[in-house]
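Recap from last week: sequence in, structure out.
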Amino acid sequence: MAEDLERGADLRRKLLADVAHELRTPLTTVQGHLEALRDGVLPPDRGTFSVLHDEAARLGRLVSDLELLARVEAAGLSVERAPTDLADAGREAAAELGAAFRSKGVALDLAFETAPVLGDASRLAQVARNLLSNALKFTPGDGHVRISTGREAQRAYLEVRDDGPGIEPADLPYVFDRFWRGRNVADVSGSGIGLTVARELARAHGGEITGTSEPGRGALFRVVLVSDPSGEGHASD
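Predicted structure tokens:
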């Protein structure tokens, strides 16, 4: 028991240190710009306020992700199960992020087949959104990302595949750890908990996410849930 208590204390200390690290950069940026505005070094123009807005939004997303992660890890997240389709979750996520993909010049390929499950439609859409956001961050301009859904035996799946730089073998076991950032992603923005949240939401539905990759050949993330045998129909794009 003493070992468990010490391990729990270590995890709490690490979490506090990680949160402080993630908050420091946007807070420093906001403080620096506000001081420059106060001292007349920066003009109160659209560009300055745009930076402040973006950093405030970044803080808001981080806090929201942390709140969600805390609820999921504490088993306090309410998952309202109802008949839904992973294809619909994929479509919703693709529609929300379509502009971001176009802005970066990354092609988003859709391949949806019906994948009926019993789950929380909004939470499953968030899983798809987090996986797509992660793929977009690591895929260079003029690259490709493919999101697909389907069924295999008694399982329904959603996959996101990219043709980015891939994940180093030494980093792959840690990609779902909160705040984990690989050695080659120092210039990539993000809170480092998007994949953690996606995994915990999948587990809350009794499913799992796996990640595979070869350096230089992209990455594949696959969500697998128990299929709803009562689901009917076929959806494709």
